[in-house]
Design brief:
mainly alpha; two-stranded antiparallel ribbon; 12 helices; globular
């Protein structure tokens, strides 16, 4: 990383972990914690969608994995009395397993088939949650306890959220930490040999296959990582709301995950993060339009995509931040 990039990263980390909490504490607007926590978690899911775009595939099913991850965590915590901290990776791994089973046959085909499958995946997951006894159907799972204490070798790493005076701050720091780690991993993937191979799929899959690149393997691997991100984001969402229903994540959420990537910039690792921030707050600001909110929102999105087809970040850096 260059000195400029390190300076930018340091500024970002100070802003997220120091300036934001201090600013909220001074203003007394504790509700901002929930808003920023939601933005952080949504950006994690969007980061996974970005990775599938990176290999040249359209993913419109991330909401399904957020829902699956949420249910896995909720079922383990409520019905099996498993610690939330253990369910967090388990939710991601379960989603990865599901995505691999789906991806193995589909990702060998042309991209249009994969896009069609992901388009219906969220609705299929919602209907499955309605039908399966373990998910309690339409009643959902409620009264989910807050994350308990996380200790290693008797040393308390994270205290019990239920004993905290302000668990909103704790959830914000957790979501922000997961977001930073997720994007750091994503950046490392993109700038590794694996990332260079994935980038070759965008240019010419036939040519990549002819020189020995295992195209199907890379597609499934990227999709598995993508779904892992969706699963952990969904698990934390459930811990915050302390409940989950089949309608907690719907097709609209899957479409939004994709829009976050488009708006921020598909050519930029940090694009989904910025896109999430802009769309989340933009939608809330447009509430003044009342019944015309959706119309204004759609019009603004179309205008932005026409004006900046490479995303908002392209206005600041023409070279991109992949390299």
């Amino acid at each position: 990383m260059t000195t400029k990039n390190l300076l930018g990263l340091g500024t970002f980390l100070i802003t997220v972990f120091v300036l934001v909490p201090v600013g909220i504490s001074v203003s007394g607007r504790w509700d901002f914690y929930y808003t920023l926590t939601s933005v952080a978690l949504l950006s994690i899911g969007a980061a996974g969608v970005w990775l599938t775009f990176y290999i040249g595939r359209i993913n419109i099913g991330q909401g399904a994995y957020a829902l699956i991850g949420g249910y896995v965590s909720a079922v383990l915590v409520v019905k099996a009395d498993v610690s939330f901290w253990l369910t967090l990776p388990l939710a991601g791994l379960f989603c990865t397993t599901v995505s691999v089973l789906i991806g193995l046959p589909i990702l060998r085909l042309r991209g249009v088939y994969f896009a069609m499958v992901t388009l219906v995946l969220t609705e299929v997951t919602r209907l499955s949650a309605l039908a399966l006894p373990v998910t309690n159907g339409a009643k959902g799972i409620t009264s989910i306890p807050l994350p308990g204490e996380l200790s290693i070798l008797g040393l308390t790493i994270i205290p019990d959220f239920a004993t905290m005076q302000n668990p909103k701050l704790a959830f914000y720091l957790l979501a922000a930490f997961l977001m930073v780690v997720s994007y750091a991993v994503l950046w490392r993937i993109v700038n590794s040999r694996l990332g260079h191979l994935c980038r070759s799929l965008q240019q010419n899959e036939e040519l990549a296959a002819s020189i020995g690149v295992n195209v199907a393997y890379l597609r499934v691997l990227a999709y598995g990582i993508s779904s892992f991100y969706g699963g952990i984001a969904g698990a934390v969402f459930v811990a915050i709301s302390q409940s989950i229903y089949p309608s907690s994540f719907v097709v609209t959420d899957s479409v939004n995950f994709m829009l976050y990537c488009f708006l921020g910039g598909l050519g930029y690792v940090s694009g989904p993060m910025l896109g999430t921030l802009l769309l989340y707050f933009g939608w809330n600001l447009l509430s003044v339009a009342k019944e015309y909110q959706l119309l204004v929102y759609a019009s603004v999105m179309i205008a932005l995509m026409l004006a900046v087809p490479n995303g908002v970040l392209s206005l600041f850096d023409r070279k991109g931040d992949r390299k």
